[in-house]
Automatic annotation (TrEMBL):
The chain crosses the membrane at residues 26-46, 52-72, 102-122, 129-148, 178-195. This is Nicotinamide riboside transporter PnuC. The keyword Transmembrane helix applies. InterPro entries: NMN_transpt_PnuC. Belongs to the nicotinamide ribonucleoside (NR) uptake permease (TC 4.B.1) family. It is found in: Cell membrane. Required for nicotinamide riboside transport across the inner membrane. GO terms for cellular component: plasma membrane. It is a multi-pass membrane protein. It comes from Bacteroides pyogenes. GO terms for molecular function: nicotinamide riboside transmembrane transporter activity. Keywords: Cell membrane, Membrane, Transmembrane, Transmembrane helix, Transport.
């Protein structure tokens, strides 16, 4: 019963998180701290140990993401980017494409995490879905970092994670969370299109929901 209440609460916070992410609102990081704190318990009780571990990582990255979106301003040619939500003293953090120089390191991180986590799950846990669990965890590590850096391609990573996770959680009978990830998969597509619009219009940093 306790796990069900936590799962429902986590689902509600997750929907709020997704809406704020869709809006490119900096307040997504508040939900980004609360949600993994809840799911640490949900995933541990379900025996999804890699997902349990990734949520500890999410907590750390949420703090990093908050700080980077607040103070990691980038400058474009011609000066800093400014929007209606920012003062003259505060530069907006723009949404950008992932620089090409990051693709190889990100691929390496994914492959190392995927193989490493998979072997750990097989060797030291009773997980019956070690490679699927490892796949979503490894790709989430990459996707979360890309979100913290405000790279638009983070949506592509989440679309794949969400689709695989939806099926995985149905298999594990975590139905509320499965529904959440089904919604994630759909909204992630619209999120990608929304961020493209923000890039095109110059509204690169929505600090308010």
């Amino acid at each position: 019963m306790e796990t069900s209440i936590l799962e429902i609460t986590g689902t509600a916070v997750g929907i709020l998180y997704l809406w704020l992410e869709y809006r490119a609102s900096i307040y997504l990081w508040i939900a980004g701290i609360i949600m993994p704190a809840i799911y640490i318990f949900v995933y541990y009780n379900a025996g999804l140990y890699a997902d349990f571990g990734i949520n500890i990582y999410y907590l750390a990255v949420a703090v990093y993401g908050w700080c980077f979106w607040m103070w990691g301003q980038r400058k474009r040619k011609g000066g800093p980017v400014k929007t209606a939500e920012t003062s003259d003293a505060t530069n907006a953090l723009p949404i950008i494409h992932t620089p090409r120089k990051y693709y190889l390191p990100l691929l390496a991180v994914f492959l190392i995490a995927f193989v490493g986590i998979g072997k750990i799950l097989i060797e030291y846990t009773d997980s019956d879905v070690p490679w699927w669990d490892s796949f979503t965890t490894a790709l989430s590590i990459v996707g979360m970092w890309m979100l913290a850096r405000k790279h638009i391609e983070q949506w592509l990573a989440w679309i794949l994670v969400d689709i695989v996770s939806c099926g995985l959680y149905i298999y594990k009978e975590i139905y509320f969370t499965s529904a959440l990830y089904g919604i994630y998969a759909i909204v992630a597509i619209f999120g990608y299109m929304k961020w493209k619009e923000l890039m095109a219009s110059g509204q690169c940093s929505l600090n308010k929901a």
